[in-house]
């Protein structure tokens, strides 16, 4: 049984209505623009109370730092809420960064995307003889932008560690060509992203025979 406990935005009893700050009456979340500014120009909001943003502590920290730098340090850098790496720490971890495939299709159109994917077999699973086609990796590439990676997904051991590294690469403009040119560390789980050659549209078999 999976129990997911959400967070409540405790914004209804702090006097926001007195100064005219609008909130979503349904969930208490605060709508802001891309600079964390509310409908009242001198009021800003960051963190879990933002409507449509991720409820993650590192996101709140980053947004707060960048907001302070914009307000008092002359910076113009905004928080990137798209390429945020995150992980679900289930027994078999799932990590992702960027867009889900469905969201990418909505935003760019299926004809402008190429999706590469593969099953893979972690080395540590060979001795206990676990199923060699349980783990999965997928990247979503924008064909109109030099096959830039706009979505990264991995299901397997240590997915959080793997995702953190690729998230940095995505911030640097990672493309499929750069992944192809990267020499993998064998045998690692992350290596699969340097050898992917099967596209989802091809319908080819993605099962693996070994690590």
Automatic annotation (TrEMBL):
Source taxon at top rank: Eukaryota
Any Pfam family: Pyr_redox_2
Keyword Disulfide bond: yes
Residue ranges annotated for the FAD/NAD(P)-binding domain, each copy included: 1-64
Cofactor(s) in the UniProt record: FAD
Keywords annotated in UniProt: Disulfide bond, FAD, Flavoprotein, NADP, Oxidoreductase, Redox-active center
A GO term for molecular function: flavin adenine dinucleotide binding
Residue span(s) of domain Pyridine nucleotide-disulphide oxidoreductase dimerisation: 84-196
GO BP: cell redox homeostasis; cellular response to oxidative stress; glutathione metabolic process
Record's GO cellular component terms: cytosol; mitochondrion
InterPro entries: FAD/NAD-bd_sf (IPR036188), FAD/NAD-binding_dom (IPR023753), FAD/NAD-linked_Rdtase_dimer_sf (IPR016156), GSHR/TRXR-like (IPR046952), Pyr_nucl-diS_OxRdtase_dimer (IPR004099)
Entry-linked SUPFAM superfamilies: FAD/NAD(P)-binding domain, FAD/NAD-linked reductases, dimerisation (C-terminal) domain
Family listed: Belongs to the class-I pyridine nucleotide-disulfide oxidoreductase family.
Protein name: TRXR1 reductase
